[in-house]
Amino acid sequence: MHPVIAAIGRCAAAYPHRPALADHKRAVSYRALSGAIGETAVELRVREPHVVAVALDNSPEWVVVDLALLAGRMPCLPLPGFFSPLQHWHAITEAGADWIVTDRPDFFLGLLRGNGVPSARAPDLELFGRRVAQIRAVLPDRPHLPHGTTKITYTSGTTGQPKGVCLDGAALGTVAGALAAACALTAADRHLSLLPLATLLENIGVYATLLAGGRCVLPPLPDVGTLGAAGVEPDRMLESLHKTGATTAITVPQMLRALVEQVASGAAAPAALRFLAVGGAPVAPALPEYARTLGLPVYEGYGLSECASVLTLNRPGAQRNGSVGRPLPHVKLSFAGDGEVHAEGALFLGYCPAGAPVTPPWPTGDIGRVDGDGYVYLEGRKKDFFVTSYGRNVSPEWIETALNAEPEIAQAWVSGEARPWIAAVVSPRDGTPDIAVNSAIERVNASLPDYARVQRWIRSRQPFSADRGELTANGRLRRHALRERYGSQIESLYPERTYEIL
Question: Which CATH superfamily does the domain covering 395-492 fall into?
Answer without folding.
Answer: ANL, C-terminal domain (3.30.300.30)
